[in-house]
């Protein structure tokens, strides 16, 4: 398979490296075609990007999934780490963050500062307090349940992220539901704005015509990847599968979150 830099732009016929193209869900087979784009920046409009690279679309398209990071970047919500000035509260709270093993999350003072600025110190403090009390009893995940999806959607820099975002922190998209509807109107098919990684998928915004469970199930194994693939869009097709032939497996998380 060609290296990511050698792959063409647009809807790809092959899956990303080490990922699967086909998957089954509730007895239906789907093909999840990654869409390779140019390096998206704040100068781009998300609608222009999907129109340029994810069309034309056929009648067998179930929906289109769009990375929440791409939407956020086009909204100007990605910041160089060097431009973020963490306060004392962020530096204090980050000492208690357990990194999940599939990204940075709020595990740096800079990303913690973004969370405090975006969500508010009282809610972050409440989430941290509840998490601190319950974690010794083996109860995990309450921090992000209390802090909310906007905290969970904050992306920090990793060594495997494509430059320049390997030195940037990105907030979740502003009003992801409205963004999904705007993209759906432009494409004429349902759209989901997703936050996916190797620990699973969370839908941040949906247009009418597609179910949260369907999207999160089909993207549980993170078919778009999160490194240098440069494929922030996925076109999901329904596939007519030959009768009697074994179906592809249902997607499974590649790693188990703590």
Structure commentary:
The radius of gyration is 18 Å and the shape is globular. The longest helix is centred in the middle third of the chain and has 14 residues, at 121-134. Strand 2 (22-25) and strand 3 (28-36) form a beta hairpin. By secondary structure, it is α+β, with helices and mostly antiparallel strands. 29% of the residues lie in helices and 19% in strands. Helix 1 packs parallel to helix 8 (176-187) and helix 4 crosses helix 5 (121-134). The protein contains 9 helices and 9 strands.
Uncertain segments are none
**Cα Rg:** 18 Å
- Overall pLDDT score: 92
Beta fraction? 15-25%
Instruction: Identify the overall geometry.
Output: globular
Return the structural class. alpha+beta
**What's the CATH architecture name of the largest domain?**
2-Layer Sandwich
What is the CATH C-level name of the largest domain?
Alpha Beta
Q: How many helix segments?
A: 9
Q: What level of helicity do the residues show?
A: 25-40%
Tally of domains: 2
Distance between the termini: 33 Å
In the CATH hierarchy, the third-tier topology of the largest domain is known as: 60s Ribosomal Protein L30, Chain: A
Number of strands: 9
Oligomeric state of the chains present here? single chain
Summarize the structure.
The chain is of the alpha+beta class and 258 residues long. It has nine helices and nine strands.
Please outline the helices and strands.
Blueprint: E1 10-11, E2 22-25, E3 28-36, H1 46-53, E4 61-67, H2 68-74, E5 78-80, H3 88-93, H4 109-119, H5 121-134, H6 142-147, H7 149-152, E6 168-170, H8 176-187, E7 191-197, E8 200-206, H9 212-218, E9 233-239
Parallel strand pairs: 4-7
Antiparallel strand pairs: 1-3, 2-3, 3-9, 4-9, 5-6, 7-8
Helix pairs in contact: 1-8, 4-5
């Amino acid at each position: 398979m060609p290296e990511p830099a050698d792959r063409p732009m647009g809807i790809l016929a092959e899956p990303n490296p080490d990922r699967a193209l086909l998957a089954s869900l509730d007895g239906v087979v789907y093909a999840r075609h990654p869409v390779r784009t140019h390096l998206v920046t704040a100068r781009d409009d998300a609608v222009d990007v999907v129109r340029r690279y994810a069309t034309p679309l056929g009648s067998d398209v179930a929906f289109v999934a769009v990375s929440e990071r791409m939407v956020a970047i086009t909204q100007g919500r990605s910041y160089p780490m060097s431009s973020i000035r963490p306060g004392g509260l962020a530096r204090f709270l980050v000492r208690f963050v357990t990194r999940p093993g599939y990204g940075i999350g709020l595990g740096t003072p800079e990303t913690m500062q973004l969370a405090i600025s975006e969500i508010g110190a009282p809610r972050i403090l409440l989430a941290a307090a509840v998490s601190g009390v319950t974690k010794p009893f083996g109860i995990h995940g309450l921090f992000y349940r209390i802090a909310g999806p906007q905290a969970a959607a904050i992306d920090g820099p990793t060594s495997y992220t494509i430059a320049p975002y390997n030195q940037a922190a990105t907030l979740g998209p502003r009003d992801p539901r409205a963004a999904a509807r705007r993209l759906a109107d432009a494409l004429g098919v349902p759209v989901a704005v997703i936050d996916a990684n190797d620990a699973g998928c969370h839908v941040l915004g949906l247009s009418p015509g597609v179910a949260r469970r369907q999207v999160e199930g089909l993207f549980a194994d993170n078919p778009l990847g999160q490194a240098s693939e440069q494929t922030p869009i996925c076109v999901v097709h329904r596939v007519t599968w030959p009768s009697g032939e074994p179906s592809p497996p249902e997607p499974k998380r590649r790693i188990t979150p703590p």
